[in-house]
Amino acid sequence: MPRLVGPTAPHRGEGRGSSHSRRDASGNKTIKEKNKEKRERARDSSNSNNLSSKTSRENLSSRNNSSEKLSSKTSRENLVKKDSKNSSTTANASFSAKQSSSSSTAPNDASWTPPLWLTKVKPPHRTRNLTIPIPPVPADTRKAIQKYIEKQQPPYHKQQAQMQLLQNKLKGQKEKAKLAQKKLDKLEESKAERIQEIKVMSQEELEAKFQTIQEELEKEHAAAAKAHEEEWKQNTEKEAKAAKRQYKKEQAELAEKDREAHQQKVQEELELQAKQAKAKDDDDDKDLLPSQKLEREHAKVKEKLDGLKETKKEIVWLLKQVINAEKKRKAPEPHMPPKKKQIKL
């Protein structure tokens, strides 16, 4: 009877140490490793089913073998009894003959050692095996044994049919498991592709949102910079106008002060010259004639007129300077664009 033996080879994932130890850089298992683990679990479950079916088959085969052994054992024992009777008679006769011959030929010396075939203890290197030819079991006895076994145990053909059904079921389950594994792999691949597509789409959406936000911020920044620049221009223009007015006012005040100081200085010099001339005239009048006195007075008057003309010219020049400064102050100022400052943002 053939014995059905299940698969005992190790799984593909065992012995390599890759599926349980392989992990990505972040510490999480990849999709392929998860699929391998699922396959290994399915194989383990199928192997356990195979082992259970194997044990049931071995039990059935052991029962059948035990029945066959019993039948063959009984037939062998009968044959051995017959052969043992014949061999015992021949062995006794040969042993008595040998003993008589050895007693007649052996010397009376104590150093004599019997041969090995006479000793009871056999050497370990010369073991003997007894082979008994057993004739084939007759068909009648075989049928009788089969009937007896069928009476004692359930019929074998039913067990065989059940085993065949179980095998067919197991094959169908294996095929279903393979198909399910293929479907699962396809689903995992489609899932990974879909996740990748979703990642790409989300990345594109994020980039578009980031671009719009960046454009809005740039517009707001440009508007704020423009407003700040206009405000700065207005403030600088106001400050420049105020500084220019203050400068013109200060210049006019300084010119007025210089004019007054110059007039005062000229007047003091004229007074000093007049005093000196009067004192000199008083000294000279005592010694001069009346005609000479008149000439001297005429020269003095002429000198005074010349001094007055010079002072008049200076006063006119100062007045012209003041008038020009006042005209420049009242005239409209040309617009000078202020220098742009570099704004660090």
In short:
The protein is mainly alpha-helical and 345 residues long. It is 75% helix and 0% strand. The two termini are 94 Å apart.
What does this structure look like?
- This protein has 345 residues and is mostly helical.
- The protein has a domain at 241-330.
- The chain has helices spanning 31-105, 139-152, 156-285, 290-330.
- It starts with 30 loop residues before the first helix and ends in a 15-residue tail after the last helix.
Provide the fold topology:
Blueprint: H1 31-105, H2 139-152, H3 156-285, H4 290-330
Helix pairs in contact: 1-2, 1-3, 3-4
Summary keywords:
disordered C terminus; 345 residues; disordered N terminus; mainly alpha; 4 helices
Mean pLDDT: 72
Class by alpha and beta content: mainly alpha
Strand content: under 5%
Helix-residue proportion: over 70%
Low-confidence stretches: 1-27, 90-109, 340-345
What does the radius of gyration come to?
A: 72 Å
Number of strands: 0
Number of helices: 4
Q: State the order of secondary-structure elements, H for helix, E for strand.
A: HHHH
Distance between the termini: 94 Å
Please describe the biggest sheet, giving its number of strands, its sense, and whether it closes into a barrel. none
- The best one-word shape is rod-shaped
Biased composition (Basic and acidic residues): 11-44, 70-85, 219-268, 293-304
Biased composition (Low complexity): 45-69, 86-104
Region (Disordered): 1-138, 219-304, 325-345
